[in-house]
Specification:
This protein is of the alpha+beta class. The protein is 37% helix and 12% strand. The two termini are 23 Å apart.
């Protein structure tokens, strides 16, 4: 996705509907509640969501910040995007 004017929730909805394959926010991605509903929608549609490093987001934990980014994919591309993202981030 390249439209920088869209909100992250709408970008994740594009992944859920199949209009986009990937949404990656490699840096801080707002608060946890900003990605909770998008995660549920993407995963209900068969996609996959994690932080930008591939770790599941703990919505019940004490941390409120999405400091490790956000990745939503169609599910098929998730591992490939993580490999690319890690190489770009030097992880």
């Amino acid at each position: 996705m390249t439209d920088t004017d869209q909100r992250p929730q709408l970008k994740a909805a594009e992944v859920a509907t199949g209009r986009a394959d990937v949404y990656l926010q490699p840096g801080p991605a707002g608060k946890r509640w900003d990605s909770c509903a998008p995660s549920a929608i993407v995963e209900a549609a068969g996609g996959h969501c994690t932080d930008a490093f591939g770790t599941p987001i703990d919505y019940g934990g004490p941390e409120l910040e999405n400091s490790r980014g956000f990745l939503a994919t169609n599910g098929h591309l998730h591992e490939r995007v993580l490999v690319w993202s890690r190489s770009e981030q030097g992880a």
